[in-house]
Amino acid sequence: MYIETSRPRLEGEKARLVSPVFSVAPKNPYGATNTAYCFSFYYHMYGQHIGERKPVTL
């Protein structure tokens, strides 16, 4: 995913990445219950006029 942040941007503008809910199967192929899931991502916020990142999960 990519969000363009070059000019002309205005102070206070926001970018949002929205995803549908992921349905996770309650059991793995061997019948055991899956109890741990992980979501990870990488980002960079380098530049003279970069604001802040505020991740939100619902």
TrEMBL record:
Matches recorded under Pfam families: MAM
Gene: Mdga2
Residue span, MAM domain: 1-52
Name recorded for this polypeptide: MDGA2 protein
Cellular component GO terms held in the UniProt record: membrane
Species lineage: Eukaryota, Metazoa, Chordata, Craniata, Vertebrata
InterPro entries xrefs: ConA-like_dom_sf, MAM_dom, MAM_domain-containing
